[in-house]
């Protein structure tokens, strides 16, 4: 059987690089690109077919910051496919990001410079907004829209005889200190991106607990620091070009500066080739690049506990009930 692969946020950055690499790994796959902009999605499909003319590449319109859009897309996917083998939960935003130059300068004169530059801890903040669904936009886009998608696609994903994989794109910036169970949408803080990525780590752990026996497995990857639309949104592109030589030099000290989307997709491609039941549910698979440019994957234990993950999972189920009831009422 031809594996069916769905990738959210597939039209640029790591999502596009992932699609290219997946087709190189296995040209038989049925690849579905779930994108917010159908114009960009069509251009991406054309580029993929230019290098893989025999590939089966389809499109579905989905904006994960809109539950109505997610539900429509899920319904279309269910009509189109009988099962899903891989669901790459890759779409994400990091809006209105600001750098604390004060923290940057002080970091250079402390012993934490490498840690700060490799994790962005204390360096970046975001100004979030509220969606039409009444949810925090970063939370809904990076986590909750994907959670609803998984829930809607359970019939295609759960098959004990042939396991399926969920693969979340998390971040090295996912930090426990940015997340709170009492404010899991991060409406009161300034680190919504970090909070949402830690939330995806928790969700992955909980999903394994609830669905492994049904043949559904969840894993988390970190692409490292990659130059994509997210990072280019923090500073002007010319500034990044000036910084690039310094960033290459930082590879002397840290392996997480993958820099290119191709390198950043290393962990996702590696997981594509693994048996999901053999993976560690409490590990984040980190894309790494050596000083000489060699890409490899390194497992890192996540700073999560199953009790917090379960409480959060139950909160997500409760929120799901509320928002679906609201949508049905309309």
Quick recap:
With about 325 residues, this protein is α/β, with parallel strands linked by helices.
How would you describe this protein?
It is a single chain. This protein is of the alpha/beta class and about 325 residues long. It has helices at about 15-25, 40-50, 65-80, 100-110, 115-120, 135-150, 155, 190-210, 230, 235-250, 260-265, 265-270, 305-330; strands at about 5-10, 30-35, 55-60, 85-90, 95-100, 125, 165-170, 215-220, 285-290, 295-300. Helix content is about 45%, strand content about 15%. The strands form two sheets. An eight-stranded mixed beta sheet has the order 3-2-1-4-7-8-9-10, with helices on both faces. α1 (about 15-25) runs parallel beside α12 (about 265-270). The radius of gyration is 19 Å and the shape is globular. The N and C termini lie far apart (about 40 Å).
Topology, pairings included?
Layout: E1 4-8, H1 13-25, E2 30-35, H2 38-51, E3 56-61, H3 67-80, E4 86-89, E5 97-99, H4 101-108, H5 113-119, E6 124-126, H6 137-152, H7 154-157, E7 164-169, H8 192-211, E8 216-222, H9 229-232, H10 237-250, H11 261-264, H12 266-272, E9 283-289, E10 295-301, H13 306-329
Parallel strand pairs: 1-2, 1-4, 2-3, 4-7, 7-8, 8-9
Antiparallel strand pairs: 5-6, 9-10
Helix pairs in contact: 1-12, 3-6, 6-8, 8-13
């Amino acid at each position: 059987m031809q594996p069916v692969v769905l990738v959210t946020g597939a039209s640029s950055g790591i999502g596009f690089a992932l699609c290219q690499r997946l087709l190189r790994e296995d040209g038989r796959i049925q690849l579905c690109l779930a994108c917010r902009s159908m114009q960009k999605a069509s251009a991406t499909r054309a580029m993929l077919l230019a290098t893989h003319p025999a590939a089966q590449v389809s499109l579905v319109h989905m904006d994960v910051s809109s539950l109505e859009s997610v539900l429509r897309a899920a319904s279309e996917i269910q009509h189109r496919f009988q099962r899903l083998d891989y669901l790459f939960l890759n779409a994400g935003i990091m809006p209105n990001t600001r750098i604390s130059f004060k923290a940057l300068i002080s970091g250079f004169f402390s012993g934490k410079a490498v840690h700060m530059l490799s994790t962005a801890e204390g360096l970046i903040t975001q100004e979030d907004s509220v969606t039409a669904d009444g949810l925090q936009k970063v939370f809904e886009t990076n986590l909750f829209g994907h959670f609803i998608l998984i829930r809607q696609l359970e019939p295609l994903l759960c098959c004990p005889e042939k396991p399926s994989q969920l693969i979340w794109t998390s971040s090295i910036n996912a930090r426990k200190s940015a997340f709170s169970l009492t404010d899991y949408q991060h409406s009161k803080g300034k680190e919504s991106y970090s909070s949402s990525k830690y939330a995806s780590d928790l969700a992955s752990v909980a999903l394994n607990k609830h669905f492994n026996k049904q043949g559904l497995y969840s894993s988390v990857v970190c692409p490292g620091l990659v130059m994509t639309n997210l990072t280019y949104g923090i500073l002007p592109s010319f500034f990044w070009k000036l910084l690039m030589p310094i960033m290459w030099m930082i590879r002397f000290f840290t392996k997480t500066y993958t820099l290119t989307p191709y390198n950043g997709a290393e962990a996702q491609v590696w997981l594509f080739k693994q048996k999901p039941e053999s993976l560690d549910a409490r590990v984040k698979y980190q894309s790494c690049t050596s000083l000489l440019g060699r890409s490899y994957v390194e497992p890192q234990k996540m700073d999560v506990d199953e009790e917090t993950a379960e409480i959060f999972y139950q909160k997500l189920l409760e929120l799901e009930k509320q928002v679906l009831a609201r949508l049905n009422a309309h």
